[in-house]
Design goal:
- The protein is elongated.
- It has 18 helices and 19 strands.
- The strands form four sheets. An eight-stranded parallel sheet has the order 14-9-8-19-18-17-16-15, covered by helices on one side. Strands 1-7-5-6-4-2-3 form a seven-stranded mixed sheet. Strands 10-11 form a two-stranded antiparallel sheet.
- It folds into two domains: 3-165, Chitobiase, domain 2, CATH 3.30.379.10; 171-542, TIM Barrel (Alpha-Beta Barrel).
- The longest helix has 19 residues, at 372-390.
- It is of the alpha/beta class and 550 residues long.
- The protein binds acetamide and zinc ion.
- Zinc ion is lined by residues 292, 311-313, 349, 352, 354-355.
Length: 550
């Protein structure tokens, strides 16, 4: 962290939030660190938009898009220019309108907005800072700015104010399970679009599971051609049922690249997940030699965890995994690949001569805390970790990877509670908090389940998410290991995009304040007011389905 940043951070935290949610104009979600309202207003309609030539091409394009959107929805042209030496002329007051100024002393996700009567000065260092400044301005403008329909009669004034802002956590994630049900590229893009409106920056894409393999792997075409499909799907909550209707789909590598590039423009890094060594029935159905028994196998029609897993005793399994992960690493430029690791049953490994021979070869022994088979999973994880390290990638795994010995450099995703995150951080490992108690968006939003769509159960209402404090229980000095927070959206019971959005929204808005805001800057009542008065209108204009407030 830069020194200037530490000084600024301290200054930001000392100054109380003014204005904020009570003011109908400033209904920004997530709540910025500091908002100080001043007298007067800025007429945004027809204002020119000027972007420092010192910004990179992507930042300039984002600012240009803002100018185009302003012109379209306000009904009056906002011209766009890329002047050189903008900081000096902006300080001299020679430039009016929106003025984006590059300040390399700021952090990449930090921004500052100074709204005066004649000019709105926007400071940022890098792309995400620019995006977040634009997003904040959009939250302050009439909701029409989030759509494409002109709203010439709206009040296109911004109140004079100073806004200084940066996120609390670097990892602000949202997960999507595209295995249990498949969602089109367009649906995924709409998911990313709404994440960007609330400044989330990591998309965890669950691409493989027992019920379907969803990413094309050139070396193993049957993964998608066979493993991408199942012969039926269970009906409602009856595990013994099967509708008998072939179901499936997958993303080609070109589509994956398209989504990755789309996300990047929204300031979002994609974290792909190939769940291993359990949750692999779809892959086994395509290549039965990957399993302990040799099959035959079939991608599953029911929700739940299959006993069949990858055989950890055969070298051919490791060769397969490395080949798959090498293609995945090439498709996804981010630093992390999620290798799953959750809910891996060990019954097959206990019976399999190859797995038992591997256990003997490695000298693995149960020790009362963990079984030899659990240590075998640690071996698989560590091997994938070192292989991916050769490709410049780090691994994330679900908190089961803590059972036994954790691979050096692994990041833990704490889902069965917060304990995994606490344990990881206490031992110097990075962790991301995604506990079922607060962050499972497949859980119900109301106790009145008769009025809700069929779901997995549980209860995670808006207030519960909002109340989550990610650093609770983390020993002093280990806080830096909590990289951030993510909510998970498993789709066993979610077959349509409409239902998916209903589970996501508006809960993701509460999540965004957990991810972005420091505790002293959070207030549930203010948040609810912001939702009711402004934010739900944004969702309406953007055409999202969401659960109405109680
Ligand atoms: C999980 O929910 N099985 C990570
Ligand atoms: Zn085996």
């Amino acid at each position: 962290m830069k020194l200037s940043h530490i000084i600024l951070s301290a200054a930001l935290l000392l100054v109380p939030v003014v204005g904020s949610a009570k003011d109908p104009v400033i209904d920004i979600v997530p709540q910025p660190v500091r908002v100080v309202l001043q007298k007067g207003s800025f007429k945004a309609i027809g204002a020119s938009v000027n972007c420092d030539a010192a910004f990179d091409a992507m930042s300039r394009a984002a600012v240009q898009d803002f100018a185009a959107r302003m012109s379209l929805v306000s009904g009056k042209v906002s011209s766009f220019a890329v002047p050189i030496g903008i900081a000096a002329s902006a300080e001299a007051g020679a430039i009016k309108g929106f003025v984006f100024i590059r300040d390399t002393n700021m952090d990449d996700e930090e921004y500052r907005i100074e709204i005066g009567r004649k000019a709105v000065k926007i400071y940022a260092a890098a792309y995400n800072g620019v995006l977040y400044a634009i997003t904040t301005l959009k939250h302050m403008l009439p909701e029409a700015i989030f759509g494409t329909t002109p709203a010439v009669d709206a009040d296109w004034h911004l109140p004079c104010a100073i806004i200084a802002d940066m996120p609390r956590f670097a990892y602000r994630g949202m997960h999507l399970d595209c295995s249990r049900h498949f969602f089109s590229v367009d649906a995924v893009k709409r998911y990313l679009d709404i994440m960007a409106v609330y400044k989330l920056n990591r998309f965890h894409w669950h691409l493989s599971d027992d019920q379907g393999w969803r990413v094309e792997i050139r070396r193993y075409p049957e993964l998608t051609l066979v493993g991408g499909y199942r012969s039926g799907t269970m009906v409602g909550r009856d595990f013994n049922s099967d509708d008998g209707i072939r179901y499936g789909g997958y993303y080609t590598q070109d589509q994956i690249r398209e989504v990755v590039a789309y996300a990047e423009r929204l300031g979002i890094t994609v974290v792909p997940e190939i769940d291993l060594p359990g949750h692999m029935l779809a892959a086994l159905s395509a290549y039965p030699w990957l399993g302990c028994s040799g099959g035959p196998y079939e991608a599953w029609h029911k929700w739940g965890v299959a006993d069949e897993v990858l055989c950890a005793g055969k070298e051919t399994t490791y060769e397969f995994l490395e080949n798959v992960l090498a293609e995945v690493a090439e498709l996804f430029p981010g630093e992390y690949i999620h290798i799953g690791g959750d809910e891996c049953p060990k019954t097959e490994w206990e019976k399999c001569p190859d797995c038992q021979a591997k256990i003997a070869e490695l000298g693995l022994k149960g020790d009362g805390r963990f079984s030899a088979e659990q240590y075998l999973q640690c071996y698989v994880t560590a091997r994938m970790q070192s292989f991916l390290a050769t490709l410049g990638k780090k691994i994330i795994g679900w908190d089961e990877i803590l059972e036994g010995e954790l691979a050096e450099g692994a990041t833990v995703m704490s889902w069965r509670g917060i304990e995994g995150g606490i344990e990881a951080a206490s031992h110097g490992f990075d962790a991301i908090m995604t506990p079922t108690s607060h962050c499972y968006f497949d859980y119900m939003q109301s106790r009145d389940t008769a009025k809700e769509p069929v779901g997995i159960g549980g209860f995670v209402p808006l207030e519960k998410i909002y109340s989550f404090e990610p650093l609770e229980g983390i020993p002093a000095g280990s806080e830096k290991h909590i990289l951030g927070v993510q909510a998970n959206l498993w789709t066993e019971y979610i077959a349509t995009e409409e239902h998916l959005q209903y589970m996501l929204l508006p809960r993701m808005l509460a999540l965004s304040e957990v991810q972005w805001c420091r505790p002293e800057n959070k207030d549930f009542e203010s948040f609810r007011t912001k939702l009711a008065e402004h934010q739900l209108k944004i969702l309406d204009i953007m055409g999202y389905n969401y659960r109405r407030l109680d």
